[in-house]
Amino acid sequence: MNKRLLGAAALVLASLIFNPAWAQEGPEVDRTATGGAQTLEDIMRRQEQQKLDDSFRSENLGNPEKAAPITEQLGTRGGVSNADTWRAIRYNQIDPTVQSPGPANGVMIQDGGISWYKLREGPIITWGGGALLGIIVLLVVFYFVRGKIMIDGGPAGTTIERFKAIERFGHWLLAGSFIALGVTGLLTLMGRSFLIPVIGHDAFSTLAVGSKWLHNNIAWAFMLGLVMTFVMWVAHNIPDKLDWQWIKAGGGIFTKGHPSARKFNAGQKVVFWTVMLLGVSVSLSGLSLLFPFQMPLFGDTFGVINSILGTGLPTELTPHEEMQYANIWHSIVAFVMMLAIIAHIYIGTIGMEGAFDAMGSGQVDLEWARQHHDLWVEEEEAKQGKGGSS
Amino acid sequence: MKVMISAFVAALIIASLAPVVLNQFGWSSAEQGSSESVRLD
What we know:
The structure holds two protein chains of two kinds.
Chain A: H1 2-17, H2 40-47, H3 55-58, H4 82-90, H5 112-146, E1 159-161, H6 165-194, H7 196-233, H8 241-248, H9 266-290, H10 298-309, H11 319-348, H12 357-360, E2 363-365, H13 366-372, H14 374-383
Antiparallel strand pairs in A: 1-2
Helix pairs in contact in A: 1-10, 5-11, 6-7, 7-9, 9-11, 13-14
Chain B: H1 2-24, H2 29-33
C-alpha cells in the first residue's frame, strides 16, 4: 500500500518537472566552429524548449588546477575567465558572498521560475478550475437523478446526540478555516487572470492583500482544527470489514436498503483520511511557503522517492526551486481537497435529509441514525441502558 | 448553530493573533529578507 502511495506521489511529482516538449531528444551538436561555446542551433533549441544537454556549459567553469602563474593572463583569477565565472553563476556552482542575509540571496540566477509560472498559470488553473466546475456540475446532475436522500418512513420525532459540542467546534474550526483558505487561495491563484479584467487593478490589489493576510493567518486555525478532529475521531475511522460491506452496497445510495455502519461509514472514513493526509500535506507545504526558505521539503522528499523507486528526481534544489515546488504541490493538494469537501458539503446539506443536524445542533433524528448508523445507535443505546435521549 | 458561529469567531481570533505571536517569537518576513541596518520598519 505504501509503495502504491509513493508510486502515485512520484508520478504526480514527476509530472511537475517533465515537460513533454523537453522529451524530444535531438542530434549531437557540432560546436567546433565556436570553440566549444554554444551555437545558434543551441539557442534555437532552447527557445523551442527542446531538450538540451547543458553540460558543455555547466561543466566548463575554468580549471584552477591549471592556473597560469600570477604574472600571466588569467593568473590572478586562478585559471578562471569572466565567462567561466558567469557560467558558474548561471549554474549556481559558486558560493558568492552577498551583503544582505538570507538563504536565497546567494543564488544570483535561477530560471526555474519560468516553468513554475507557466505551470501555475496554465495547467494548474485550467485543470484545477475545470475540476471544481466539473464536480459541481456532477453533483447538480446527481441531485436531479437521485434526488434528496430522505429518511425512509419519515422522521421518528425523537433525537439522539450524534456529536458533542467540542466535536462540532473542532469540525467547524476546520471547515470554516478551510472554506476561507479555499476562497482566498483561489483569489490568489486566479485573481490576476479572471478578476483584474473585471474589477481592475486597484480593487484587486485591495482584495489580494486582504486575501493574503487571511490565507496566511487563518491557516493556524485550520491546523488546530485538523489536530482536534484527528484526536477526537481517529479511533472511529480505523477501516474494518464492515466498510467493505458498505462499499459493496454502494452506501445504499442507489438501493432501497441501508448498509450497516458504526459511528462513521466507509464513505465518511474516506473523507476523514482524505482530509487528514492531504491536510497534513497542504499544511507542510503551506508552512514551507509561510516561512520562505526556512523549511525546504522537496529535495529531501525527492531523495527518499529516488532511493525507494530508483527514479532520478532532482535532489539538489535551490531555495527558489523549493518554493516553486511547494507552491505547485500546495495548489494541487488543495484542489483535490476542495473536490472532496464540495462532495462532503453536498451530502451533509442538501443531499440528505437530516444530515446537517449532526453538525448543526448535534442532535439527529433517531430514525435517520438507525438507517445510516444502526450499529452506532445500538452501541449508544446499550451505553445509556436503552432509550435514547430526546 | 452557536457552536458553529463560535468556531468561526475562534478561527478569526486565531488569525488575528497569529502575526502578533509570530512577532513575539522574533519572526517577521522583513527580518528574513534584510539586515537591521537597512530595514525601514
